[in-house]
Structure formats: structure tokens, C-alpha cells
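TL;DR need C-alpha cells for one chain.
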Amino acid sequence: MNNFFTKFLILFISFFCFFSHVYAAEILQVSSSSILLIGDNNRTYTVKIACTEISPDLEEKSFIWLKKQLPRHTKVNLKPKGSLDGVLVAKVIPFNSNIDIAEKYINEGLATNQC
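>> reply
TL;DR here they are.
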């Protein structure tokens, strides 16, 4: 009887491990050159990209570049750094690159590092 219970428990746990869905945060909208709307299945967050400062003359070019880098439904990891006026400030790391989008922004010359 104990052997049956052990096998049943292993089967039950493995069923949930293999067939459960993992819902990652994804981009819903790029609102500006530094503000994103991100959702994770049942919640949405307004997120400001951490450690970046965009000059006003590069605002439009930065916005277009960011929309190309983070199209709708791109899955991302968030590393929160704080909040500012109810907006989450976080590092945004796309799943497909493992490089913070702020680093890419700065390397392109579209933003300056503020950390």
C-alpha cells in the first residue's frame, strides 16, 4: 500500500510539473521612449525603464527604436529598482537576448546612463 501511494504521489507531482503553464510578463504597449505597459496574465503594470535618460531631441528616434526592439507580446523579465509616482521603475530584459534593454539603449547612443 505504501508503494502504491509513493508511485501515485510521484505521478501527481510530475503531472503538474510537465503540464502546467508558465505565464511570463509580456509587452502590451510601448507608450513612450521610456514607459511600457506590461502584463502578466491577469495584471498590468506601467513600467519606466531604469537607468536611462533620453534627451528631448532624440525622443522620436528612441521611441521608434524601442518599438522595434520590444514588439507587442515580447516576453520579458523585470528586475524592479523602485517606483516613482506609482510607476514601477525596473530593468527590462527580453527573454530572447538576456541583455537589459537600457544597456542596448545606451550602446545605441539614444540614452544616457543615470545609475
